[in-house]
Design goal:
The chain is an alpha+beta fold. It contains two helices and eleven strands.
């Protein structure tokens, strides 16, 4: 707003005051009243009587718990593993046995058609130092063959075998043939369960090459194969190629004789 506007506003207010305080009382012959006007008296405020409200506590329903009784069963008894060697549960009848070769057709098998599978060898967990032979004499030979049934009345036994390759024939044939591998000597023993001729227990082969020149400082013979499935009857199918001789024996712990 401009300065002149403020001046006119002040003049207008002054005129109003003069009219209200001087001119109007003079015309009405009343004294001007400079008191603050009083408020009219109001009737006392009556508060309504509060109504009585019946209050009830809410009822909380507690869910009924179903108690289920679970029959507890005692944990199975843990039997610690034994570290002792197996012993015969009954008194075995043990006699020295003489084993001879028989026709493979006795067991309905053929040296050319027998199918076998490689099974893992089982190492003995026992430290046995004293053995006794089950046979009256070892099984010896030079060529392939099939043995008679051999009864093993002990729970643990071992098969010991030795092979003697034909070194002179090996050198002579290796020079004549182009493939050296075709003239290497070979040897294997198939162990069968006599009560189940179709079940081969294990196939045994000498580890490494049958080369006598490798055994001059450390001869691994006899090789030993360990069996934990005893108390059975067995027969062997032997396959031999380019050998001068082989020898097979069955051993069992001498401590078993204390049980007889």
């Amino acid at each position: 707003m401009e300065k002149e506007d403020y001046q006119w506003l002040i003049v207008a207010l002054g005129i109003l005051l003069v009219v209200g305080l001087i001119i109007k009382p003079a015309l009405t012959h009343e004294e001007p009243n400079f008191q603050v006007p009083q408020l009219p008296e109001l009737p006392p405020l009556r508060m309504p009587t509060p109504l009585a409200v019946a209050t009830t506590q809410p009822v909380t329903k507690v869910p009924t718990q179903r108690v289920t009784t679970i029959a507890t069963q005692a944990p199975p008894e843990v039997v610690p593993a034994t570290t002792t060697r197996p012993v015969p549960t009954s008194m075995p009848v043990w006699t020295l046995q003489t084993v001879q070769f028989v026709d493979p057709r006795t067991y309905n098998v053929s040296l050319q058609t027998v199918q076998y599978r490689n099974l893992s060898q089982t190492e003995s967990p026992y430290r046995i130092t004293d053995y006794t032979s089950l046979l009256s004499s070892p099984i010896t030979g030079q060529y392939s063959g099939t043995t008679q049934v051999i009864e093993v009345p002990f729970p643990y036994w071992e098969l010991w075998y030795t092979v003697e390759p034909t070194a002179s024939d090996l050198r002579a044939q290796s020079e004549a043939l182009s493939s050296y591998s075709t003239v290497l000597p070979s040897f294997s023993i198939d162990v069968f369960d006599a009560d189940n001729s179709s079940s081969m227990v294990r196939r045994i082969t000498p580890p490494g090459s049958l080369d006598p020149s490798l055994w001059k400082t450390d001869d691994p013979r006899p090789w030993k194969e360990k069996f934990l499935e005893g108390n059975k009857r067995y027969y062997f199918i032997i396959r031999a190629n380019m050998l001068s001789s082989y020898s097979i024996d069955i051993k069992f712990p001498t401590s078993y004789l204390e049980k007889i």
